[in-house]
Write a structure and sequence with these properties.
Keywords: Signal. The protein has 27 helices and no strands. It is mostly helical. α15 (225-237) runs parallel beside α17.
Length: 475
């Protein structure tokens, strides 16, 4: 009977870790923070017991201060920082805590001072080097890198290149970040570093390589939503729709907390469904994206782009106009957004659905395009773009050049292109259109003069050679 009772006591003790060990004495900051947030009174009791039992344990007291700081309780953190300073033994944990508290108060100079002291006190302890580099990366990247290279020299056993890569990533210097990430095997990178590596490659424009990195990261960390998200985006952009569909489903399955789903996830899900030939289902996802991001500035612009991608120009136009209506800043340059709106009207007018015939509906859409491009030229009178596209819209409304609607706008675009040494292809098109207009009107000298200008830019242009041949025959 005695043995049975003893066994029961042993089992009860083993099943009660709080009794067996004081959480605030464990050194596990996350567990300490959890207790501070869930039961601050009990946490305080445990702290008092821990310090009473080991009042000269500098590292323990500093760790308690760090836990309170991480829980957002700066005053308590300062209390234990000062208490740890009174201990007989000097500790880098204490000195670093001083820097952390200063940083929490936005006092970067004081933070740099404490981290500098910690580096001086123990040259081989990496924590202060890492924290110092984070503080100065935006003001003195050279100093930050220098400190990390120094600890790398002293401690070749540490994966310092990962820290350097993270600095460059945080400073948006993706080229340097990628170079550092690439020097490390995947197995030595943290989960965050792998995510940032893939994001850096994506932001540098290499979708194929970004997919490779994200896929390797996903094999190591299969439950990381950021890596699955990157795979979805990259597979979609490369039109690997079947694979992207699996990514989209997995991402939504993983994100059981809907607050962690981004509106861009729904946008890309919609792109995938449209790519697989399911436009109606794609629209459902776009509407979910809009509902998700109703308070996000510029969401209507993103939704407009989404509808443009699936060829729904009416909704793309609607949301672009909604976006423009939200702009109240009088100094904002609306010309780019207006140009995109004009292009939406243009694409609608020239879409397969609209057909080749010049119907009243098509003319109405072209007039809208022409009006919007007119606004662009008013806002950017020194750019050929508004005039050029205004000319093209008018040319479609006057395909036989009967009224010469496009002529003045081609001339205005050409004047700017010639003045600024613009793109030859655009100049040749303007010359060609004007030459053909004068040919139709039987004003051969002008038609020939423009054809000769084309030949100077492109001696093999078939239109110019043919017109000059006709002009020579007529002579």
């Amino acid at each position: 009977m005695y043995r049975i009772k003893l066994l029961i006591v042993v089992i009860l003790i083993a099943a009660s870790p709080v009794v067996a060990q004081n959480v605030m004495q464990s050194g596990k900051v996350d567990d300490m923070v959890s207790l501070i947030n869930s039961n601050p009174g009990l946490a305080k009791t445990y702290v008092e017991k821990a310090i009473k039992a080991d009042k000269e344990n500098t590292d323990m007291i500093a760790t308690i201060g760090s836990a309170y700081l991480k829980a957002g309780k700066i005053d308590e953190a300062e209390k234990y920082f000062l208490l740890s300073k009174k201990c007989y033994k000097i500790s880098t944990k204490t000195i670093n805590l001083g820097g952390d508290i200063a940083l929490a108060k936005n006092n970067t100079d004081s933070a740099k001072y404490y981290y500098g002291r910690a580096m001086y006190f123990n040259k081989r302890d990496p924590e202060a080097y890492f924290k110092y580099a984070e503080v100065v990366k935006f003001t003195d990247m050279k100093d930050a890198i220098s400190k990390l290279n120094f600890i790398k020299m002293l401690r070749p056993d540490l994966p310092v290149d990962g820290k350097i890569a993270e600095l460059y990533y945080g400073a948006q210097n993706y080229t340097e970040a990628i170079a550092r990430y690439e020097s490390l095997p995947d197995s030595l990178m943290t989960e965050d570093e792998l995510v940032h590596y893939a994001q850096s490659v994506l932001l540098s424009g290499n979708y194929e390589k970004a997919l490779q990195v994200a896929t390797r990261g996903n094999e190591l960390h299969p439950h990381n939503t950021d890596l699955v998200r990157l795979m979805l985006y990259c597979n979609t952009d490369q039109e690997h729709y079947e694979a992207a569909l699996e990514n989209a489903k997995e991402l939504l399955d993983m994100a059981t907390d809907t607050t962690k789903i981004r509106y861009t996830d729904y946008l890309y899900y919609g792109y995938v469904l449209n790519g697989l030939g399911h436009p109606e289902e794609a629209i459902e996802k776009f509407e979910l994206a809009r509902a998700k991001a109703k308070n996000v500035p510029g969401i209507d612009k993103d939704i407009a782009t989404a509808y443009q991608k699936i060829g729904d120009y009416d909704k793309a136009i609607k949301y672009t106009r909604d976006y423009l209506a939200t702009i109240t800043d009088s100094t904002y340059d609306r010309s780019r957004d207006l140009f995109q709106l004009g292009m939406l009207y243009w694409r609608k007018a020239t879409s397969e659905k609209m057909g080749d015939d010049l119907t009243p509906e098509k003319i109405a859409v072209l007039k809208e395009a022409e009006a919007v491009f007119g606004e662009v030229s008013k806002l950017r009178p020194d750019s050929y773009v508004g005039y050029y596209w205004r000319a093209k819209a008018n040319a479609l409304m006057d395909p036989k050049y009967v009224r010469g609607l496009a002529k003045p706008y081609y001339q205005q675009a050409l004047e700017i292109l010639e003045r600024d040494g613009g793109d030859n292809d655009y100049m040749i098109e303007c010359y060609k259109q004007l030459s053909y207009y004068y040919y139709i009107k039987k004003v051969m000298p002008m038609a020939v003069s423009y054809a000769e200008k084309i030949i100077k830019l492109d001696p093999e242009d078939s239109y110019a050679k043919q017109l000059l041949s006709i002009a020579g025959t007529k002579k």
